[in-house]
Amino acid sequence: MKNIFIVFIFSLIACVTPKECCAQFMVTSMISSPADGEDMSLDNLTDNIGVMYSMEKISAGIMMDGEDYNLVARYAFGDRLFAYGLMTEEEEISLGVGYALNVWNELYIEPSYLLDMESEDSEGELKLSLTYKF
């Protein structure tokens, strides 16, 4: 029920936003590394796929993580640098920073560093994402 409500809210926002506004949608996929002994496959690209709605410098959306859904929020510090946060269904929070490299038109490769705020060790992990803005 919670997922249906979130999708309804994003649909409503998209319908009432004027076309002249600088709002846009982003489709992003965080590439996951393969398990030990496995080769890279298409599943590594589509496991963490999500949709975000952007207005000015703030973006918010939903990202699928396997069978679970995560809420994601992002703040842009200019054209390239951004900070973002993920919240899982278990209410675990991760924070990160990243940089958007424009590859072609509105396609971006985004390396980032993500730190899990719930874990005891202070080691984060490097992530790589593909994002398309439309």
Describe this entry's structure for a reader.
With 134 residues, the chain is mainly beta. It has one domain: Porin (Beta Barrel). Helix content is 14%, strand content 53%. The protein contains 2 helices and 9 strands, in the order H-E-H-E-E-E-E-E-E-E-E. It has an 8-stranded antiparallel barrel. Strand 4 and strand 5 form a beta hairpin. The longest helix has 15 residues. The chain is globular, with a radius of gyration of 15 Å. The protein starts with a helix and ends with a strand. The model has no long low-confidence stretch (mean pLDDT 80).
Which key features would you list for this structure?
134 residues, Porin, 8-stranded antiparallel beta barrel
In short:
By secondary structure, the chain is mainly beta. The chain is built from 2 helices and 9 strands.
Strands, count: 9
| Unreliably modeled segments | none
- Listing every helix as H and every strand as E from the N terminus to the C terminus, the arrangement reads HEHEEEEEEEE
Radius of gyration: 15 Å
Mean pLDDT comes to 80
Write the layout of secondary structure elements.
Blueprint: H1 2-16, E1 24-31, H2 43-46, E2 48-55, E3 58-65, E4 68-77, E5 81-87, E6 93-99, E7 101-104, E8 107-116, E9 125-133
Antiparallel strand pairs: 1-2, 1-9, 2-3, 3-4, 4-5, 5-6, 6-8, 7-8, 8-9
